[in-house]
Amino acid sequence: MKICVVGTGYVGLVGAAIFADWGNDVIGVDINEEKIERIKKGEMPIFEPGLSEIVLKNISEGRLTFTTSLSEGVRNSDVIFICVGTPQSDTGDADLSAVWKVAADIGKLIDSYKVIVTKSTVPVGTNQKLKQVIRDNMTSNADFDMVSNPEFLREGYSVEDMMQPDRTVIGSDSEKAFSIMRGLYEHLGKPILECDLKSAEMVKYASNAFLASKISFINEMAQICERSGADVSVVAKGMGLDNRIGPRFLSAGIGYGGSCFPKDVAALYKTSTDQAYDFRLLRGVMEVNENQKNYFVSKIVRYFGKNMADKTFGVLGLAFKENTDDIRDSVGIEIVKILRGLGAKLKVYDPEAMYNSKLVLGSTSVEYCLDKYEVMQDSDALIILTEWKEFANIDLERVKTLLKNPVIFDGRNIMDRNKIESSGFTYFAVGKRTAGLEALDKRPSGTPGVILKNGN
Ligand code: UDX
Ligand code: UDX
User: Fold this and answer.
1) Lowest mean pLDDT segment, chosen from 52-61, 309-318, 441-450
2) Which residue minimizes the CA distance to atom 6 of ligand 2?
3) Which CATH code fits 2-195?
4) What is the overall mean pLDDT for the chain?
C-alpha cells in the first residue's frame, strides 16, 4: 500500500515508521523543515523507546521517506493519514486549525482516488465537515473517501501499542474504504470495529475520558484513604483483581497530565455543552484533577511553611509520565512552577525531559542536575513527580547523607513506604496515612514551618 502520513509528531512518526515496517511504502510529511532534516539523518526528534531502530531500518530498506512537500506525499500515495496536532484552545475546544488547513491543501492536490484518514483526535462531526472542506478545495473530479481511525497510543509505549493494539477502530461510510483499511490492519489479528464516522470519533474521546475518570476516581479514594488510614495502593490492587474493573489506570498520584487527557476531557465536556447537555461526571473528573496537584503541594507547604525563600528542593521527574521526554501539560512542571512561585529553589533531574524542561522553565531558581543523586545534595527535601522506574530504586543511605533533612514527598507512590519509614525518613505519599502525615495532622493549625523529623 502507498501511504502518506501528514504530521510527524509523536503519533505521525510512530505511525509512519510502523506502517513501513509492515511492508508499505510510506512518505512522512511535515511543515517543520528542521524536523524533517533531522529525521532524514536518522536523528529522532522525540524520545520513544524502540522508534529509532524501526525508522532507521525502514529508511535504509527504502520503504520510508520524509519530505516537507505535501504535494509529493499526496501524489505518491493511495491512503493519506492526517496526524497533525489538535491542542486545546482557550475555550476548551480542540483547536482544529491545522486539521482544516491540511484538509484544504490535500483537497487542492488530489488527482486520483484517495482514502483520507483522520488519526488526529477530532470532535464528533469533524470528519463530516472535513469531507466538505476537501470537496470545496478540489480542482479535479477525482473521488475520495473519508475515514476516522483514532489512535490509542500511550507515549513511551507507542511502538508496542501500535504493533499490538487492543483494537482498531475504523469509521467510514464507504465499503471500498473499509476494505482498504482492513488490508492495512487485518494481519495484526486484533479486533477491528467498523462503524460510522461519528461513532469512531466518539470512541476516542469516550476512551480517554473514561481512563481519566478512573484516575480521578482513585485520586478521590486516596483522599479518603489518607483520612481513614487505608492504603490506596492496596485498595487499587484489590479493586483491579476484579476482571470487570481491571488493574490499569488506578495509580493515585499528582493528577493526570500530557497532551491528551486534559485536552480530550475538556473537549468532550465542551461537546456535551454544545449539545445542550451538562456532563456532570466529567466536570468532577476535571475538578478532582486540578485539586490533586494543589493538595500535593499543600503538604509541602504545611510541612515547610509558605515562605520558601530559604528552601531548596530536589525534584525527580519532569516528564508528564515515565518513558517519555514530553512535558506538554506535565503536572510535575506545574508543581515546580508553584514551588518556585513560593520562593523555593529547585534542583531538578529527569532521564529524558531535561532539554524540553529547560525551554519552558528557564534558569530562574532552577538548577539542572546530571543525575538523580545530584538533586539531593543539600536539598531540604526530595520530591518525586514522575513515575520513572529508576526513581523507585535509590540508595536510601546515600540519600540520607545528601539531603539536609530526611524528608521525601512521593507524588507517584513509587517508593516502598515500610522501607523508607524504617530507614528513618519522614515520608509523604498519596493516599497513605504515613507517620509523617499523621504527625503533620496532629500539629496545631497555623504552625507552618516547624520541621518534623521522622514523623515526630
Ligand atoms: C497527535 C494527534 O494528532 C492529536 O490530535 C492527538 O490528540 C495526540 O496525538 P501529536 O503527534 O502529539 O498529536 O502532535 P505533535 O507532536 O505536535 O505533532 C504534530 C506534527 O504536525 C508536528 O510535527 C507539526 O510540525 C506537524 N504539522 C502541523 C504539519 O505538518 N502541518 C501542519 O499544518 C501543522
Ligand atoms: C493517553 C491514552 O492512554 C492513549 O490511549 C491515547 O491515545 C493518548 O492519551 P498518554 O497521554 O501517552 O496516553 O499517557 P497515559 O499513559 O495514558 O497517561 C496519561 C496521564 O495519566 C499521565 O500524566 C500519567 O502519569 C497519568 N496516570 C496514568 C496516572 O496518574 N495514573 C494512572 O494510573 C495512569
Assistant:
1) 441-450
2) 152
3) 3.40.50.720
4) 95
